[in-house]
Design a protein that fits this description.
CATH architecture of the largest domain: 4-Layer Sandwich
Order of helices and strands: HHHEEHEHEHHEEEHEHEHEEE
Structural class: alpha/beta
Strand content: 15-25%
Strand order of the largest sheet: 1-12-2-3-4-5
Amino acid sequence: MRSFSPEWAAPVMWVAFTWMGVSFLLSLALVAADLVWIFQRFISQLSAHRQILQRVLGVVVLGVTLLLSCYSVYNALRPVPVKPVVLTLERLPQGLDGLKIVQITDLHIAPVTEKGWLAGIVEQVNALNPDLIAITGDLVDGSVENLKAEVDALAKLKAPHGVYFVTGNHEYSSGVDPWVAYIASLGIRVLRNERVTITGAQGDTLDLAGVDDWGARRFSGEGADLSKALAGRDPDQPVILLAHQAAAVKEAAAQGVDLQISGHTHGGQIWPFSYLVYLQQPYVSGLHRYPDSATQVYISEGTGYWGPPMRLGTSAEITQITLKRP
């Protein structure tokens, strides 16, 4: 991807990444077949027909792998649905009751991304008439030079309270500083350990903060610094945090954040990877309240996909979060 032009890289990536997903599903099917093969040794009736059973298992493995692979590719490439989420914030001011935040995340624009796909996502988002748009990281997989023509579509995003972006881990492996500068040139406010004030029609306000990716310190720069983002704020005013990884919620709860909006996990993307996500993240997807705190966190399953163009047991989403008072 980094050594060749997109025209040459795309077909190679399609074949390699698709085979990566198919071989993973094939491995799962073979493990299941091996378990049946081991179990049959304890059943005399089956043991008498071992050769037939072996052939049946082979056909079943191939058939299941083919069906799951075809469905997974379809599920990843179908039009992205809108997921409505109604969320109660205890401290939400009256004047901001009903505030609509549309989140897109983990789009992973790359040479394999279909031309015009992002433009279609932008049209869907704008059609929802959001009050505020949040892009919570992992926007790209590649350089500005190779991908800017596709990413330009983000300039058409419109929301009265603004469009905001925070970095994900893939921005760091793709060249974070050039990308931050280019995204800002499209009229999108990049929040790097910063906050802004969102003001409602009646003058009521809340803070919107954003931090660099939780794992950014191992790449370059200062990394996530929530204390810096929240320094000097009014503690009686609610604060919403944009953070790419759900792992940031522990510090967010300690600092009194009302709501954290995250992505990163893809919901596991291909089952059963969802169970492995818990080795790194406290939550995989959906809405949760952090223990012993008033902090809520919502984790999107992602708007795009990474690697294999496949999703099994998960679904891409454009998330429409509506904030309500109790």
